[in-house]
Amino acid sequence: MKLKWWKILCIVFLFFTFTAGFLIHVPIIGNLHQSIRNFFFHVPMWFGMIGLLSLSLVYSIAYLRTQNLKHDVYASEFAKTGIIFGMLGLATGSIWAKYTWGEFWSNDPKQIAAAIAVLIYLAYLVLRGSMTDFDKRARISSVYNIFAYFIYIPLIIILPRLVQSLHPGGMEGAKGGGNPALGGGSLDATMEMVFWPAVFGWLLLGLWISSLKIRLSLLANKNLIK
Question: How confident is the model at residue 165 (pLDDT cuts 50, 70, 90)?
């Protein structure tokens, strides 16, 4: 079967990330040392999650406008893949925290906010699973999805910047002063060369996984969905 161009790009970007991410020379920033290489995986996973959940939001709105169950399937599958990326982001973040801050979980505001955000979307899946009527499930879960998204964005982007945090971009933390920001002038050209392909690679991987799950779901419900 011939691969589409964006799938080929996904493979190229991820291959480049996994090779260059481990081989390139990285700058020594603060107490990060070689653990900074996790930056090429941990952060792009969250970018991928944001992209997938944004697509899920768009399709939930589309369902409420058209009442087309196909849009609900798209919203559900994009959300499921986004949750997987969020869990991977939490896992890689915890490993990074162990080497940088000395423990897997520091009760950092961004860690807590990210965990709450993932739980909110897990509740979305529980809500969907609690209803058997397709139209009712689609309608209620679409409304929930819209509210969940607009809670999720402030939780992971805005709130952690308003309080003390060990993460970059927040106020100076209480445990060692946090880390230098990994953006703007402190993210050198070599790291950017790997980082942005990693972002697009993980996002395209999420789209690829979601497209396969969407096709399976549509086939499983072909008698109900036109």
Answer: confident
Radius of gyration of the chain (CA): 19
What is the residue-averaged pLDDT of the chain?
Answer: 86
Kindly report the backbone phi and psi dihedral angles of residue 200, in degrees, each rounded to the nearest multiple of 5, phi listed first. -70, -35
Residue corresponding to tokens 């929930």 = 144
Selection from 93, 15, 48, 40 nearest residue 209 by Cα: 48
Q: For the chain, how many residues are written?
A: 226
More confident residue, 184 or 50: 50
Q: Are 186 and 180 in contact (CB under 8 A)?
A: yes
Give the per-residue pLDDT at 31. 72
At 164, is the secondary structure helix, strand, or coil?
Answer: strand
Integer Cα distance of 163 and 167 in angstroms:
11
pTM: 0.89
CA distance 144 to 107: 27
Percent residues over pLDDT 70 in the chain = 89
Asked whether 168 and 183 are in contact (CB, 8 A), the reply is: yes
Phi and psi torsions of 39, nearest 5° = -55, -35
Instruction: Answer whether 220's CB lies under 8 Å from 63's CB.
Output: no
Burial grade of 219 (CB within 10 A; 0-12, 13-18, 19 or more)? exposed
